[in-house]
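User: what does the whole thing look like in 3D?
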Amino acid sequence: MIKKTLEKKLQKIWAECGFPFPTISLELPKNTLYGDYATNIAFSLTKDWRMSPQHAAEKLCDAISTHPEFANSVVFNVQNGFINLRLSDAFLWEQKNQATAFPETTDSTLLEYVSANPTGPLHIGHGRWAVLGSTLFNLLSYVGMPVKSEFYINDAGNQIVKFYNSVDAARKKEPIPEDGYHGAYIHDLAASAKDPLQANLDHHKETLFKLGITFDIWFSEKTLHDSGEVVSTIEQLKKAGMTYEKEGALWFSTVQFGDDKDRVLIKADGALTYFAVDIAYHQEKIKRGFSRLINIWGADHHGYVNRVRAGVAALCGKHFLSEAHFHFIIGQLVSLMRGGEPVRMSKRTGDMITLDEVIDEIGSDATRFFLVNKGPDTHIEFDLELAKTKSAENPVYYIQYAHARLSGILKKITQKTDAPLANWELNPTERQLLLHCVQMPDVLWEAAQHLVPHRVAHYAFQMARYIHLFYETCPIAQADPKDQEKRLLILVTAQKTLAEALTILGISAPTEM
RNA sequence: GCGCUCGUAGCUCAGUUGGAUAGAGCAACGGACUUCUAAUCCGUAGGUCGUAAGUUCGAAUCUUACCGGGCGCACCA
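Assistant: Here's the predicted 3D structure for the full assembly of 513 residues, as structure tokens:
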């Protein structure tokens, strides 16, 4: 990781020179003319040092610019108070061959996502959480964080009863209860002898598999009831004095843990609330040894975040109030349009487009890219007609084409590897591409730290841009042997790097298109 | 009404702990295929970063108020 390494080096050397800074953080200048990295440290010194940022930066730069540690690797210059760093070509070549060692993480993470009710088919919103979750999972795994993925199956409770009643009614050719499920799929389920819940679940698995998604753990809610976990969780809360009775119900005072009001655990009719089950579930996760929980939820459940967090904090320790140990990613909903008209997505109407249909229409790669390319906080408006007619212009093809083009060259030209590189000087296009390649570990590490999978998509797109430019302006077949050798090495690196990014995104890297 | 969230180019969206002249794609316009794949590249045009204050060397980013969209506010799941 270049950036981290440079930050540490700078900090160390400045400390030796008598400038102890707690941390140095490098940023990527917007304008690449300034350099590859920059630091604004001088701006924070103006008061103490009683000098202008420019002056302070020059002083700091003097201390390091001739340091042997940076000889042949970094060129410094000061502009507008910023200290700019430019990496040498030799350094870039060296980095290309360096294996990345990501810092070790002690936390063991459980990533729960999708967790759709098995009472109906998955819709595009589920697709979004699914793609976000699986990309995040790939990302965390890639940077060496221990992580397991889990799908929580809501196979108990009221909705399940209503669901079974609906299918039963359909089987008996009776009208479906008012408060039941009225989708057309209910009749399909009724026509089959299979258990309808299991049938839905199998269908979920198939749909997710089409997107290349599998889960480490499928966790059944029913097992929490059967094992007595829910009851014992409530007992535990009672003993801790965190519950009280009011109007015939048992309440949990979650307010003291940041919730805006207290919540019912056992209703006046003696039934458990979903909340009671859910905190038992989350406690169970921690009992299984996970020290960090990440949940991806739809925005329609965001009002639920605080009470679950409060519950977990009460049972398992206040550190779960912190995002570092219990993180929620709230995915905004996806509005599905067809020809400018909104498509309703309710499971109860029957008038819905399923995730399955979307994947069949535009393909897994495009579906994944479209859903992961945007931050989870944005509201996506997705027009199916538009997606179909413009599928050839989808950025995912731009990226895949970049990979295919490189493959095309490799098919025609075989690479000679062993000879030492005769010409390692980089022209701007070559340099841009190689630099971007060796920066991947930094990008992935930071994306993993901030839990922002969409940054991987942007990285891949940027990579494709540089590859196309390289392809257009740096011929290989007709280049002289020195350039050819050098460019082939860059090409192989770029192709491998892009393929890795695509793997994390769960998108195929075709060798021809 | 309260809470969460979003508002950046005509459209869809990036913009990293606050940094240098605000960034892409699509759409529009003009160029580049006798070449390793033109699903590409180059160029032009496009902006009161919702509005108004505040914080400071410096704000799209932080604070407050308002405007507008989405979603939540159950002894449903």
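In plain terms: Confidence is low (pLDDT under 50) at residues 346-350 of chain A. Residues 394-505 of chain A form a domain with the Isoleucyl-tRNA Synthetase; Domain 1 fold (CATH 1.10.730.10).
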